[in-house]
């Protein structure tokens, strides 16, 4: 199947991290029976509603709980670790589950450090990080796919929590090397070309991926080194086409790939009928709002909690791009829209992420989508 799963191990409102992790293990087992190709775990920190803070640990647990599905990271934040530590972690998992592990790496750790360096602690933090699009700017539709205006993250640099969090994720005085240099070190350790040897890790059968949200350094590094690339439509829908284009333009054949290979992410909620799908999807906007106000992802709300929130115009502007680009509805309707996403981006696979407060509804969403996508519904 050309569908895979990205899981953040979301903590539901009223639940615990243990609940979230047990749900992840259950969903991974179910995903394997549904036929999904990969099961990736995200890395997030300082988020009250997300339990996937240590992807390597969680990947090992998911690999142990499943038999065939590929398991990986979406993505390890390399800015917070050394290439050696990452290769050793994933080499250890691969030693026990050879040929099933994906090492997805992202630049978000570097980006966090860059924003922290720009921060001005003496400056009052903005009440919200929202910056509505310039007057008159609207989204565009490309061959049936909505590309919204870009979300402006510039005010994030003024948030005092950013520098504080960055200080906790690295040793005092540590400097993050250039992303391209770090990726080269990862490749060198895996291939056994480094002057030092990673054990376990050297010769591991892990599949190395780069994840990115734009056509910037992540896309360039992935292309120039002939690695597969994952583009974020669910996080940065405005720049997904730029990201994919930048990767393909930079691509050079390698031992890993003869041609470019792209996976594109999407936020999805599927139910047996539209009304149920919309009800399940209600809390998403409130959850995104918590992220974009700098508080970190809150525990995932119930539909009733979402109904109780009074939305301001600024709140709505804050989450509009994410709401408008989510795929919500019946199995056939969502599958058709996902086919549009795949066609327009030229994706070889789609990486689906679904969050609902009710775990059974989340599992059912993935089951319905797999059936519709595979033509069995």
Explained architecture:
- There is one protein chain.
- The protein is an alpha/beta fold.
- The protein has helices at 17-34, 55-65, 83-96, 108-118, 160-169, 179-191, 217-224, 240-250, 274-281, 284-292, 303-308, 313-324, 331-345, 359-373; strands spanning 3-7, 38-41, 70-73, 76-77, 101-106, 140-142, 145-147, 207-212, 229-231, 262-270, 327-329, 349-353.
- The longest helix has 18 residues, at 17-34.
- Helix content is 43%, strand content 14%.
Task: Write the topology of this structure.
Layout: E1 3-7, H1 17-34, E2 38-41, H2 55-65, E3 70-73, E4 76-77, H3 83-96, E5 101-106, H4 108-118, E6 140-142, E7 145-147, H5 160-169, H6 179-191, E8 207-212, H7 217-224, E9 229-231, H8 240-250, E10 262-270, H9 274-281, H10 284-292, H11 303-308, H12 313-324, E11 327-329, H13 331-345, E12 349-353, H14 359-373
Parallel strand pairs: 1-2, 1-12, 2-3, 3-5, 4-5, 5-8, 8-9, 9-10, 10-11, 10-12
Antiparallel strand pairs: 6-7
Helix pairs in contact: 1-2, 1-14, 2-3, 3-6, 4-5, 7-8, 10-12, 13-14
């Amino acid at each position: 199947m050309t569908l895979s799963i990205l899981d953040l191990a979301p903590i539901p409102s009223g639940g615990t991290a243990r609940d979230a992790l047990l749900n992840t293990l259950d969903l991974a087992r179910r995903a394997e029976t549904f036929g999904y190709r990969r099961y990736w775990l995200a890395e997030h920190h300082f988020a009250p509603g997300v339990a996937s803070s240590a992807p390597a640990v969680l990947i090992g647990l998911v690999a142990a709980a499943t038999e065939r599905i590929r398991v990986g990271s979406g993505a390890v934040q390399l800015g917070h670790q050394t290439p050696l530590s990452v290769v050793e972690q994933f080499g250890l998992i691969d030693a026990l589950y050879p040929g099933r592990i994906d090492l997805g790496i992202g630049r978000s750790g570097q980006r966090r450090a860059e924003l922290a360096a720009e921060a001005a602690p003496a400056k009052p933090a903005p009440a919200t990080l929202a910056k509505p699009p310039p007057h008159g700017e609207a989204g565009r539709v490309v061959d049936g796919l909505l590309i919204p205006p870009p979300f402006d993250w510039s005010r994030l640099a003024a948030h005092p929590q950013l520098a504080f969090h960055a200080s906790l994720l690295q040793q005092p005085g540590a400097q993050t090397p250039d992303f391209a240099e770090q990726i080269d070190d990862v490749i060198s350790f895996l291939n056994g070309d480094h002057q030092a040897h990673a054990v376990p890790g050297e010769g591991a059968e892990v599949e190395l991926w780069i994840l990115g949200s734009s056509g910037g350094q992540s896309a360039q590094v992935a292309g120039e080194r002939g690695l597969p690339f994952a583009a974020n439509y669910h996080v940065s829908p405005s720049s997904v086409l730029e990201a994919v284009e930048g990767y393909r333009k930079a691509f050079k054949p390698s031992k890993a790939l003869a041609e470019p290979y792209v996976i594109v992410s999407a936020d999805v909620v599927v139910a047996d009928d539209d009304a149920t799908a919309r009800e399940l999807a209600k809390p998403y906007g409130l959850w995104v709002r918590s992220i974009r106000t700098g508080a970190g992802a809150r525990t995932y709300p119930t539909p009733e909690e979402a109904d109780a929130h009074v939305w301001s115009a600024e709140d709505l502007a804050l989450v509009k791009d994410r709401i408008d680009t989510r795929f919500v509805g019946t199995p056939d309707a969502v599958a058709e829209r996902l086919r549009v996403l795949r066609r327009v981006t030229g994706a070889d696979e789609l990486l689906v992420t679904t969050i609902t407060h009710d775990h059974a509804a989340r599992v059912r969403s993935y089951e319905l989508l797999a059936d519709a996508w595979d033509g069995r519904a």
